[in-house]
Model the fold of this input.
Amino acid sequence: METSQIITLLSGAGLGAILSAILVFVNNSKKNKLDFVTKERSEWRREIKSIIVDLLSGNNRYDAISRLETQLNPYGKYIEESKYEFYMSDGHIWKLVDNFDYSSENVKILTRYLEILLKYDWERSKREVNYSYNSVLYKEIGR
Done:
């Protein structure tokens, strides 16, 4: 084997190793980010479920509303009701919470809103996880 062929072979292997290391790093970063976000959302959903239980049981309703305010999207409080973002940013929940009178009717409405919010977040999480793994799979197959 000639010297130029050996150099070409070694440089190709080195370039392949560098590209492989970069791809592994990017893939691990995405996976770690997804795992972190998934864990945080899981804790958020657990807290919302706890708030729903307290509202429905009648125990600690005042505390439940206070905890809920820390879990809602703060931007929803300042968006006009006529806009789509009002609902996507929890504006309708803020509107109810800001005038909450602890009546059984308001408790029912609020728990229904929170149940829908939980379901939406759960479906969004499933789509994101599915998309992430599918996109990696499609990239690997497409090579």
